Amino acid sequence: NAGVTQTPKFQVLKTGQSMTLQCAQDMNHEYMSWYRQDPGMGLRLIHYSVGAGITDQGEVPNGYNVSRSTTEDFPLRLLSAAPSQTSVYFCASLGTGFTEAFFGQGTRLTVV
Amino acid sequence: RKEVEQDPGPFNVPEGATVAFNCTYSNSASQSFFWYRQDCRKEPKLLMSVYSSGNEDGRFTAQLNRASQYISLLIRDSKLSDSATYLCVVTAGYSTLTFGKGTMLLVSP
Question: Minimal Cα distance from A39: which residue of B?
Answer without folding.
Answer: B101
